[in-house]
Amino acid sequence: STPLMHQLYQLFGPETKVSVDYYTTTRKKSDGTGRLGALHEAIQREGILHRWKLNGMQPDDVAIVSDTDETFTRDFLRALQICDIPNFRPGQDCREPKVFASSFIYESSLDCVNRERRWHHPDAVLGECV
């Protein structure tokens, strides 16, 4: 196993199926604002759903959606496993099946915290609503 996979198994545990898919594109930002077009985002979502199905996601699993520089703490992930979280109770109508993190924004270094803005990622989503 690679060092990255070793770290992921340390975080999620040896019984959890962990996959890392690499995705690159040479496609330019479509609208000049830095956002990718709707088609590009739809293709990414489809790829994520495909991987989750391959990994055997179950209705009571929790999906973590994040960029590589966003992560929950191990304690928060453990709390997702053992605490009763109303958004993750079975039988959801899937209108509120998500938990958003709220984190500081660092500019260039951990010493440069921008306290005026917050970032609302990563996300955790109930498996039955994926």
Please state the CA-atom Rg, rounded to the nearest Å: 16 Å
- The spatial strand order of the largest sheet comes to 1-5-2
Largest sheet: 3 strands, antiparallel
Total count of helical runs of at least 4 residues: 3
Fraction of residues in helix: 25-40%
Task: Extract low-pLDDT stretches.
Answer: none
Structural class: alpha+beta
Mean pLDDT: 77
Beta-strand content: 15-25%
Task: Give me the count of strands.
Answer: 5
Order of helical and strand elements: HHEHEEEE
So what's the overall shape?
A: globular
CA-CA gap between termini: 28 Å
Task: Walk me through the structure.
With 130 residues, the protein is of the alpha+beta class. 28% of the residues lie in helices and 17% in strands. It is built from 3 helices and 5 strands. The strands form 2 sheets. A 3-stranded antiparallel sheet has the order 1-5-2, with no helix packed on it. It has a two-stranded antiparallel sheet with strand order 3-4. A hairpin with a 6-residue loop joins strand 3 (103-106) and strand 4 (113-119). The longest helix has 17 residues, at 38-54. The protein is globular and about 40 Å long. The model has no long low-confidence stretch (mean pLDDT 77).
